[in-house]
Design goal:
328 residues; alpha/beta; Arc Repressor Mutant, subunit A; D-Maltodextrin-Binding Protein, domain 2; 3 domains; seven-stranded mixed sheet; two-stranded antiparallel ribbon; 11 helices; 11 strands; binds benzoic acid
């Protein structure tokens, strides 16, 4: 059994056709067929049922596919990490979710450039989950997101908890009310914008915010509410009466500006559309959104510690509460 045969098997299973797999791999159909047969002979198991069209995996083939896909992905990660270890890129590529861009990211990058004037920084707008794959493939060197991840290749540093604020149209009766309570918002249309939902182990907790919950928390209730904003309300036993789901934060704030509803956003967003939107604090101190920094565990880009120090420098300057952490 060799890696070429395994890749051929995966390609045939993905394409469910020898001719499509031949096109996608650039290997002739007879060679593909021979390599698959050889693999099946080597392990003594029929992996693909050739009598069905499109081709189908046998039951054992499906098991082999699931396990071998994971092994090949891991192999690709190890190879790419080894290459990066021997030859780290000079540039630091930072993946970020849009909500951190509106806040301190520009200031932090300026602080990093003051510390390391020769540094080249690339920025990539990339979702929290995609950041994990991008770290493994080497597309980014560090990721900034608002969700905790549990992955054997990844280490995460919790940078801080940022308070949520309520965003209301300027014409709303509560637009000028400070320190609002979630219960007073229940009759408004709540605009939901998160694409990523909370992992069930976190979302089932009731007595803490999602951000305050340890990643290995034990579930205590069934039927978790995994939508992050609904989860915040649910912690207080509140269910908003009307909701609308949109594709992202910008759209949500545009709808608020248009008077279509209200939403909750991290405090750093409060400069967005400030002519049309009023941002007010919530009285609940634990209604917060965490900010995490993710990197690979074993191959940390040499400039990442400088980046972390630049973050802490900005926190110090701004008097932001945080707990200093280090890479493992
Ligand atoms: C923050 O708002 O805490 C933050 C933003 C960008 C990068 C790192 C931290």
């Amino acid at each position: 059994m060799d890696i070429k045969q395994l890749n051929v098997f995966i390609a045939i299973a993905d394409c469910q056709s020898f001719s499509l797999a031949a096109r996608s791999t650039g290997i002739s159909q007879p060679s593909l067929s021979r390599m698959l047969k050889q693999l099946e002979t080597d392990i003594g198991v029929e992996l693909i049922d050739r009598y069905h069209r499109p081709l189908q995996l046998t039951e054992s083939g499906q098991f082999f596919y699931d396990k071998i896909s994971a092994v090949l992905t891991e192999l690709a990660t190890v190879t790419s990490m080894t290459q990066r270890l021997s030859n780290p890129s000079t540039a630091l590529t930072i993946g970020f979710v849009p909500s951190v861009l509106y806040g301190l990211l520009p200031e932090i990058i300026a602080a990093l450039k003051r510390r390391r004037p020769d540094i080249e920084v690339n920025l990539k707008d990339i979702s929290s989950y995609q950041q994990i794959e991008a770290l493994k493939s080497g597309d980014i060197d560090v990721g900034l997101g608002r969700f905790a991840h549990r992955d054997p290749w990844i280490q995460q540093i919790l940078l801080r908890h940022e308070r949520y604020m309520v965003a209301l149209p300027k014409t709303h009766p509560l637009a000028h009310t400070r320190d609002q309570r979630l219960i007073d918002l229940v009759n408004n249309r709540l605009i939901l914008y998160h694409q990523t939902h909370l992992p069930p182990a976190i979302s089932v907790m009731t007595d803490a915010t999602p951000s305050a919950v340890p990643i290995n928390a034990t579930p205590i209730i069934e039927n978790a509410i995994t939508e992050p904003l609904l989860h915040l309300f649910a912690q207080y036993g509140i269910t908003p009466l009307m909701t609308t789901k949109v594709s992202d934060l910008q759209v949500a704030l545009s709808l608020v500006a248009a008077g279509e509803g209200i939403t909750l956003v991290p405090a750093s967003l409060q400069t967005v559309r400030a002519e049309q939107i009023s941002y007010q604090r919530l009285i609940h101190e634990n209604v917060t959104s965490p900010i995490y920094l993710h990197t690979l565990k074993d191959v940390v880009h040499p400039k990442v510690p400088d980046f972390l120090n630049a973050i802490y420098e900005v926190y110090e300057q701004r008097g932001i509460t945080y707990r200093r952490q280090q890479f493992v």
